[in-house]
Amino acid sequence: MKNKYDKYWGDYDTISDYVFFATLLDPQCKSKFMKVVFTQMLKAKNKDKKMFADEIESKAHAKVIDIECKLDKFFKTYLERSNMTSSSQQETPEEVVNFDDENEFFRSYMTSGSFPSTSLESQLQRYLNDDPIGFDKGYDILTWWKNNAVRFPIVARMARLTTSN
Predict the structure, then answer these.
(1) How many CA atoms are closer than 13 Å to the CA of 42, on its beta-carbon side?
(2) Quick one: average pLDDT of 124-135?
(3) Whether 77 contacts 109, CB under 8 Å
(4) Any residues with CB less than 8 A from the CB of 27 and at least 6 apart, and which?
(5) With 70 as the cut, is the pLDDT of residue 91 above it?
(6) Confidence tier at 110 by pLDDT (50, 70, 90)
(7) Which of 23, 62, 131, 149 has its CA 20 to 30 A from that of 36?
(8) Rounded distance between C-alpha atoms, residue 107 and residue 128, angstroms
(9) Are 9 and 18 in contact (CB under 8 A)?
(10) How many CA atoms lie within 13 A of 129 on its CB side?
(11) Closest CA to 14 of 36, 54, 41, 33
């Protein structure tokens, strides 16, 4: 059990970005939750090294910023693909996110260059800047995204892909 924990959450330097993306795209968690998790992980990892609290906070904050930047690249890839498919009304949303190679989309966003500036680019930042919705026993992430897909259509597509893997 510990090996599985370590594989997925043990050391955040080796964890797949998709795990972080899924956390950011959970309206209960977002960036604030990730910073707390990273802070706790750093404290546990460095308890023998006696790191100062402000150094731990700074490293945790830097990691959150790094993940948000990667998610922004991911968002821009979705935005670009959305713009390409909006001219072709025959394509379905499923065709936009299906790839022969599961890692093709991830590689695409990591190697992507600059993208045209549009008002949709702020959609991800609007989502991330909204306060987390709070923890609730009856919470259903799929229902939340279904209800909020109109506010965040591109981010909702990202969440659908990220949570299905």
Answers:
(1) 21
(2) 87
(3) yes
(4) 130, 132, 133, 141, 144, 148
(5) no
(6) low
(7) 149
(8) 23
(9) no
(10) 5
(11) 41
